[in-house]
Amino acid sequence: MAIMPDNFEYSVAIVCALPLEMAATTAMLDETHRMPRWQDPRDKNNYTLGRMGQHYIVIACLPDGVYGMTAATSLITWMISSYRNIKFALIVGIGGGVPSTSHDIRLGDVVVSKPRGTSPGIIQYDFGKAVNGNIIPNASLDMPPKVLLTAMSSLAADHMMSGNKISSHISKMLQDYPLMQERFSYPGAEKDLLYEANYNHDADIPTCDHFKSQSTVQISTTEVQAPPSPSFILTDRFHLKGSISLAALVLDRRYPNQDTFVSSKVSLQPGGDFSVSVDQNFNELVGTCAKSSPAFKKALAKFFFPSSTKGIEGDIQVVSTQSSVYTLLQPRTLFNKISGTIEFQNWLGDAWAGKKPLYFVVGYRTVTDAQFIGKEIKSLSNRRIPQNISYKPRYNTDGERVYAICFRKVKFERSPKGTVQVLGSTNRWRVFNKQRGHALDSELEHIISADLCDDEEVGTNEFGVLPPLL
To answer: What is the pLDDT, as a whole number, of residue 49?
Structure first.
């Protein structure tokens, strides 16, 4: 935890109605702070304190089982008595949405309210009356402060130029809090359901899966931008960005630019097929602390001295003018499109016959004009520097280089002829295997289907980037 600021330094409040919402909000903090030094004796709220960017944040949740405007007003009133420099409060929570022609709302979207015309952006559900089947507002909440509206305009412009960083934020959250993986990861487009307006949900049943077939509206399915698995694997060579392709199929993750398949039928377009989030002035530590494996230390040593396997101490600092994360937006849809091509099926023959694993590149991180700085390394006897002299080695790269890659494993299922009724799917095809060793050689027909595995854990690493594969 960081040093505890004074109460008056906290200027932003975040209010959540559910512990689920508070957990997600707290996980987004860049740092957390200790309990407050002072709190109004009459203030019974429980707070989580921290920093997000340059802002000091106070997070509070409504009492368990107590909801509504009265509870929220009481919470904010007592919060201001303890943190008197609060400039504004944000309501952060989960909710449902209905897609329209102007707003294609999908599961996993981040929605930010903003005023339009006479609407302040948030409509209180009981501030209105029904007239001829329409809801007519008869009161409204106050408009957001101007400082938030101008910040929203700047953020929208930044997203137009550089894209958003939501994927990288969520990936970091799952790296920092692995237990959140199950409940806070994107569950897939198949869970993005739109129910009929007249359907009444049973409050005693947590999900409505049993009734979704007759109660849901058919909507076109698409994959929202899901963050790659936290398992970004550090490359043992810093390949030029042009030599590693998104949506490539790789037989050996150690050599992502060799024995790969890149479809000539699919042309990836930024924004439509993949997103790019950019961090300027990138600075990250890759750990070689006591918790790191000897293999990791050995691999990092190769960056500095190819023949050296000893002497690395401390962390490796990665400094770059820019770091970018490239992420496929619809990996499964894209894979199905590629796997349905004849050129892929022809290329796959050797891999399938040899029962080799196959991996799909769904994202990678790059660094531009990077410098890798070792905190301390001891010279060896075969170096020009006198033996056992400690110094900081530096390894420089030029241009945009691939720093770490995220893979999804391809899973195959084989069924005898006749068990699969529909061959129209692009990721299913027929293969024929020769059966030898019998009185008469025979040819056995199989139906092969291929799909991407769910995000897999290929290892653990407390720094968010896995060691190279040795």
So the answer is: 93
User: What does the alpha-carbon distance between residue 192 and residue 35 come to, in Å, rounded to a whole number?
Assistant: 38
**Residue range(s) defining the domain that contains residue 238:** 232-409+454-466
Percent of the chain with pLDDT over 90: 10
DSSP reduced 3-state for 451: strand
How many H-runs (helices) and E-runs (strands) does the chain carry? 9, 20
* Cα–Cα nearest to 249, from 402, 410, 381, 122: 410
Strand locations in 191-255, DSSP E? 232-234, 249-250
Last residue of a domain, one of 37, 58, 91: 91
- Residues 101-131: pLDDT tens digits? 777 777 778 888 888 777 777 766 665 555 6
pLDDT of residue 148 exceeding 80, the answer is yes
230 and 179 in contact (C-beta within 8 Å)?
A: no
In angstroms, what CA-CA distances link 28 with 32, 43, 88, 174, 176? Answer: 10, 25, 18, 10, 10
Which runs of E-coded beta strand occur in 274-399?
Answer: 274-286, 312-328, 359-368, 371-378, 390-391, 394-396
Q: In 3-state terms, what secondary structure has residue 274? A: strand
- Report the candidate in 64, 5, 14 with the shortest Cα–Cα distance to residue 32: 5
Six-digit token string for 244: 């590693």
What is the tens place of the pLDDT at every residue in 164-189?
777 777 777 877 888 887 788 777 66
Backbone region of residue 281 per phi and psi (left: phi > 0; alpha: psi in -120 to 50; beta: other values): left
Domain end, chosen from 91, 112, 128, is at 91
Q: What is the pLDDT of residues 337-359, one digit of tens each?
A: 888 788 887 777 655 555 678 88
Whether the predicted pLDDT of 136 surpasses 70 = no
106 C-beta neighbours (distance < 10 Å), count: 16
Contacts of 9 (CB under 8 A, 6+ apart): 56, 85
pLDDT digits (tens, 9 = 90+) for 15-66: 999 999 999 999 999 899 988 778 888 988 899 999 998 899 999 999 888 8
The closest of 6, 46, 48 to 29, measured between CA atoms, is 48
Coil, strand or helix at 240: strand
Residue 221: what are its φ and ψ, rounded to 5°? Answer: -90, 140
Residue 109 lies in a domain: no
Question: Rounded to the nearest 10 degrees, what angle do helices 166-176 and 19-27 cross at?
Answer: 100
| Model pLDDT for residues 186-237, shown as the tens digit of each residue | 776 667 777 777 777 776 766 666 555 555 565 554 444 444 444 566 665 6
Q: Are residues 87 and 236 in the same domain?
A: no
Cα-based angle 22, 105, 162 (whole degrees, multiple of 5):
80
| 433 within domain boundaries | no
Indicate the number of domains in the chain.
2
